Queue: 2 jobs
Job 1
Amino acid sequence: MKFIPAGKPALTGRLNATYLIETRYPMEVAAAAMAGEQSSGTFRPIPGETPELLLRFGARVEFIEDLGEVDGEALPFSRAPGDAAAVRPRRAKVGLSWNIENMGTVLASVWSTVLGNLFELHHFSAMRLLDVSFPDVFADAYPGPAFAVEGTRRLTGVTGRPLIGTIVKPSVGLTPRETATLADTLISAGLDFIKDDELMGDPPHSPFEQRFEAVMAVIDRHADRTGRKIMYAANISGDIDAMRRQLDLIERRGGTCAMLVLNSVGLSGVVKMRRHSAVALHGHRAGWGLFSRSPDVGMSYLAYQKFWRLAGIDHMHVNGLSNKFCEPDDSVMASAHACLTPMFGRADRPDTVMPVFSSGQTAVQAGETYGRLGTNDFIYCCGGGIMAHPGGPAAGVQSLHDAFEAAAAGIPARDYAATHPELEAALQAFG
Amino acid sequence: MKFIPAGKPALTGRLNATYLIETRYPMEVAAAAMAGEQSSGTFRPIPGETPELLLRFGARVEFIEDLGEVDGEALPFSRAPGDAAAVRPRRAKVGLSWNIENMGTVLASVWSTVLGNLFELHHFSAMRLLDVSFPDVFADAYPGPAFAVEGTRRLTGVTGRPLIGTIVKPSVGLTPRETATLADTLISAGLDFIKDDELMGDPPHSPFEQRFEAVMAVIDRHADRTGRKIMYAANISGDIDAMRRQLDLIERRGGTCAMLVLNSVGLSGVVKMRRHSAVALHGHRAGWGLFSRSPDVGMSYLAYQKFWRLAGIDHMHVNGLSNKFCEPDDSVMASAHACLTPMFGRADRPDTVMPVFSSGQTAVQAGETYGRLGTNDFIYCCGGGIMAHPGGPAAGVQSLHDAFEAAAAGIPARDYAATHPELEAALQAFG
């Protein structure tokens, strides 16, 4: 049997994935069902599934870590062998691995392999993908982020502190001219970064081209004055050809960033934009709740962000401390740390991405965010925390600078506020 | 205020979506939070959110249908106003609508709008998208399926009965030559349709080009003999440029179908392939469990399939009766009926898609599938149900013809089997 045709170099390495499962089957049987379904198996033994093929292409169960019995089934409709009522479900962590020859270095095939039909198998009353680990061949197959932390600092001229950003609000309804007027206010206030809302794409009341041109004119005017060009993450999420045209416009017009709503555009679209793009790519995770909101189905952010990093995203949203959503603070910080953890350990290209904190953020959470992350390599987006500051937007931005300075110096914000009135006002207003 | 710039025609209509929610907030407050988050609102009142803007661009709560109190919260981490412990959650159906001016006819923007951050809002301990209804302007913006039922029948020459198909198994590990040998067996057995497994893309042990060429040579050889070219859904799911090259090859080589793993490729990629494709697009839903497995988060297949139909998919997988997964039979049939329900009621183009039954299917479920669907416009994929038939693959295919003939004539399969030995053997083996 000739498995490796001429012209294609042999790939080496294994793809690894870890899952949380809940099942009433014996753990070994359940894990074998996962491995079979996602590699060479089917629901009945078939002639072509030879021992040689199984050995080479069958997914391997690397480990099963029994987490013990649970009271009832988390999700309905699972089945059990024999007398179902007599068996109580158990939870476990299961590690699977695949020969990279199964899927080659096609990212969509990896997605199908580690997610695929697993969530629907009747053996399971809970199934979450906890982690995925790509072998080094993927670092050659996909470019990864082009800018990430260092490139974003270079494009914005911001060093020694986090980038301070905001989202254009109201999310929808502003005309291009109104958006530009708001951008003028925001840039005058001292922001480093502004972005479209994920709901703002290319609608008739704010066509992308007109909005982008209007905002860039404002950005350029300020850059002429200050020597610093703020970064505008313009939301290009849409059909491939439209996104390409918009990316071309951004580049031609001297923009430095484009935003992609990852779940709306999808993996292949994001890869395509990365290969076409000369600017930083800002990844918004709207719809993330679909994968994260249930503790019993879905995937971890640790696994999720690796796909988008490999696809070439530079900034990844991670929510924020004390956010307006459901996510606990520890989960937010784990996501941010994941973004800053190298994937391949390569020195020749960016190997981390920049986490973006957003959602109900103000100077109140700034110090803790900084302290818990242990670095200033992040983008910190505030809406009301800037616009609703009692002293106005410029005071709002100043309150964030104060908060980060205090954090960098190891001084409690409350103490630092005694000599920094903007911080003091923010802590009063938002605390 | 000039909302509609020159050159862009005004769009009319509203996008509607229905949700199942669970909340401890007063229903009106909870529904308003959904509407605000997904349109012009933010977490604090802001200056630009004028009454005029709200009226025009704010999402509208169309209805709230209270479903009553439930015992406990389905999902963790939601919050309640005031004394949380004293408030029990209630469930409701909520209808929202948006002015189509909010997002224009950009499908990715619709995805962000009807899904977006909703699942993460702290008000909710359950949130599912039940349905979405696109205004007619989308039928002009997106081509929809090019082949669907009628085109698939034309390409395969199958009329008056369902198409009988199978999936190449083992899913991974076969070389192109081995795949072609298996295809020869399958086509000789009388199948109308064969497809790659969703795990088989463009790996080094079975490069797409070589596999496709090898299988097409077999298909052509049989077509020369029988005058009928079977349809091969070759899995092109991958990066955009690779998918385009593969589509070009399929067209050049006389293929009639390409398969896309919808969740792996993503919405923008699928739209792009539709615009580039001259062949039928077969939509696989691997990963669907991420959206469907929990009754408390995700979306219905009714909503899901509308996005992919609009994007241009011709065949949509719907699982099968008595399947190997967790899905109840009623859910399977509801999905299949959804595929065959017109979206826009237009006569000038296909307005339905062809449902594909798959997963543990044999002659045993064939009659009920036919009977409950009320039409023969579907693809029926069997693996073991054909290959593991005691009389061999050709007898397996014959057993399915028998089962569908019996169903069409209103004769119970058991009775029909008395004079049809292949059906009899299938009912014995798989019943």
Note: Chain A has two domains: 14-141, 148-430.
Job 2
Amino acid sequence: MSRPLVVDVHTHVYPPSYMAMLRARKTVPYIHDPASGEPRLIILSSDDDPSIPIDERGRPVDTSYSDINVKLTFMQQHGIDCSVISLANPWLDFLEPAEAQQWAERINNDLEETCAKNNKSTDPDSALPLQGRSTLFAFATLPLSAPSVDIIVNEIKRLKTLPHIRGVIMGTSGLGNGLDDEQLGPVWAALEETQFLLFLHPHYGLPDEAFGGAEVTKRYGHVLPLALGFPLETTIAVTRMLLSRVFDKFPRLQILLAHSGGTLPFLAGRIESCIMHERKFVENGGDVPGPQRSIWEILKTNIFLDAVVYGTAGLKAAVAAGGGTDRLMFGTDHPFFPPLNEGEKEWISVTTNYKAIDATFEGEQDAVAAVLGGNAARILKLE
Amino acid sequence: MSRPLVVDVHTHVYPPSYMAMLRARKTVPYIHDPASGEPRLIILSSDDDPSIPIDERGRPVDTSYSDINVKLTFMQQHGIDCSVISLANPWLDFLEPAEAQQWAERINNDLEETCAKNNKSTDPDSALPLQGRSTLFAFATLPLSAPSVDIIVNEIKRLKTLPHIRGVIMGTSGLGNGLDDEQLGPVWAALEETQFLLFLHPHYGLPDEAFGGAEVTKRYGHVLPLALGFPLETTIAVTRMLLSRVFDKFPRLQILLAHSGGTLPFLAGRIESCIMHERKFVENGGDVPGPQRSIWEILKTNIFLDAVVYGTAGLKAAVAAGGGTDRLMFGTDHPFFPPLNEGEKEWISVTTNYKAIDATFEGEQDAVAAVLGGNAARILKLE
């Protein structure tokens, strides 16, 4: 059997325009250029620690974030035919209201142009199949801090005119009050109407107190916030959407959850059980309406998962929760989790996910092909 | 095939002595007896809300917590042959140092006596097989706030003289600073030496801020703290043990994780990947030693999971992470999650877990029998 198509749905960029914006800032998030060495990205308020010399604060941000050629080389080295690139966190969450619309348009136009230019160079007539050439599509970003929700809705509609945009990426803060905020209604309606996929991605993690305080959190480097805080942030966000009945009110909303749903597939049963046992909800004689549709139904109709979970245990839960293999899509999280030894070309974070897919669907070539790229090509209409 | 043995490893009690202690208290946790109706249990500081009339604060605590006959009836109604009872949270975490030893001894003696008396009544000679009669064993509680760790170690050793004690239940705070506290070394050593199973169970959840603040948390009743906070608390606690190298230093420690590990089976791959990519750890040229054994190895040698996860997605992840079906054990979480309609004798929280086990191991009778009771009988030496 021929090698299946491989599509990476979880791969981030900071376009040069975004890098320039971060360089001009002096508060988190910002980029600082030390006297020597790579620029530093100070992305979280905890990174901006005055006890650390400014030249060592945050993390190095090399060209893999902003130079699309570095990503194309990475794709070739890892057998990836097509990447659906998205702005990395924290997106535009932090912008002043007056700046939001302009920056969203600029960055989305940059993403569109990057995809168009690249795809034209590999196939001027767009007639070749995706397989075997390096093709790019993109998830756009939204001006969530804009002074009016109409500006966000208008940007979603404008994105329909950009041929390489296949959805939008969003964090968990929404307009600043989480994704159960009723003010987001018009945004959900616009996403339903355009049938853009919403790629929901963490950034804020959990408060240090959850891990036992700042001292404990720091003791283990980034492990607790990244390994546990990020997945829980996603799970909390989507559970708040469920509990506030977003999926009842907008039943055609299509969401791709980062990191195989955070922990949603594993906890879905417990969430459903807790809802059924919650006296507060009307069906049980409570005082507010609870969600009308079961979490299992929502997992099978509204939610897609990436396969960025680094093991068969997570993938098996993802498949069982989603009712099959047709809602799961390969991803890498590039340029995050590079090999620690700089000489290594093969990224173990990527090969771990490849191996987990093979091991989970042992001998089921159709399932492997679906997860690696077939699902993404169909769901995102990549052509 | 005959009906398999069913053992419930996750079932809680408040012995009458513990109830009396809570009734004598005026600060959290405490029990308040309203002028009419059932006593109220005020267990969390958030329950002790002065804006709520005292007679309505907290949750009703009926006889299912303290009357062992209610549990025996529940067991008969749900086909459970044997229960390994444990003190419910918050155990003795809150006691003044001087009180801790005395209360631990008293409660553990009460648990022992309850089991002994019951088992003698169903089989005076202890000669019958477990199946078909209602047998009790227990996980004991530890005086964790005692002024010296020796008192805790001595209680563990004393427990070996109580024939129905099969392990100890513990929360995530340890001596007050979490389970990565080096001061806990002698406790881990004593548990290794006695080969008592440590049943690790959540109580504290996550700070409200993790869910978007107290107002958001309350909006959905107990769903966010119970469905997401509890499992994450367990996951964080065991990950801190792993990162602080507890399993390297005490490789024979045997831990049973509540709620199928919280989210550990699902997140194990991500935790392992984050450790491998953490510059702080020595193997990678960092400045502190990282864990020496892989999380997958620890899941297969040190960790047991209950099957209280309410769905096939969670169970499949639990089996995949633990390398098979021989480390997973049925549980109910009784007396929590009773039916909301009081007339119902069948608890949907229990039947959901029964059905999930059947659906996960469809047709594999040996696996079903192992998870329902065979594993517990072997691991806990129930006879």
Note: Chain A has 13 helices and eleven strands.
